[in-house]
Amino acid sequence: MIVLALDLAARTRAALGWWMLGILGMAAYAVAAYEWISGLEEISRLYEQYPPALRKLFGDVDLGTLNGWLQVEIVSYLPLLLAIYAGIFAAGSISREVEQGTVDFILGLPIGRTGFILSRLAVGLWNIFVICLGLFAVLVAGVAIIGHAPAAGNYALALTNAFLLSAALLAAYVAVAAAIDEQARVTGITLGLTLVLYILTGALKATDAPDVVRWFMPFEHYHSAEAMTRGSLPLLPLVLLPCATLAASAVACYWYNRRDIAI
Amino acid sequence: MDAETGESAATPEAVSLLETESLTKYYGPHRGVEELTLSAAPGEVLGFLGPNGSGKTTTIRVLLGFLRPTSGRASVLGRDVVAESVEVRRHVGYLPGDVALYGERTGEELLALASRARGKEPARARELASALEAPMDRPMKKCSRGMRQKVALVITLAHDPEVLILDEPTSGLDPLAQRTLLELLDQEGRCGKTVFFSSHVLSEAEHICDRVAILREGRLVVLDKVEKLRERKYKEVTLVHSGPPPNLEGLDDVQVVWRHDGRMSFRMRGDMRILMSRLAACAVEDLTIEEPSLEEVFLDYYREGAA
Question: Are B40 and B91 in contact (CB under 8 A)?
Answer without folding.
Answer: no
